[in-house]
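Hello Y.,

Per our agreement to keep a running log of every chain we model this quarter, I'm adding this entry. I've kept the format consistent with earlier entries: sequence first, then predicted structure.
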Amino acid sequence: MDVPYPLAHYRPYVGDRQLIFEAQTDAGLSPEFALVAEVSGQYILTSPSQEFFERVTWEGDVAARWRPDANAESPVIIDPDVRSGRPSVSGISTEILWEQADSGEDERDLADTFGLTLAEVRWALAYELPLQAA
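Predicted structure for the entry above:
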């Protein structure tokens, strides 16, 4: 494909799905991990692959950032140029917001301190909750 990171590039998803399908087949990849499926002679993205693709922000043909939450309203993003790729909301680390809230800081105070909306703080905390519970 003449690109250094093919899965971070737009081309495999829209152009050569057959190549991905053949690579999956040759590698003996389990169907549950497949990116592409063949249906009636057509190569389509599997549901998880399509969901991932829709959550990527493309700049030209390159994946620039990703929204880890399936909810399109979520402001949480992962961008390699922001916070070294750690999840953030408006440039503020979701982990930092979690730590502050976990130590007793009020959500409204967090919003004021970091220049966020209350909704952004709540999205960040909701994102971190299952990660911190693990």
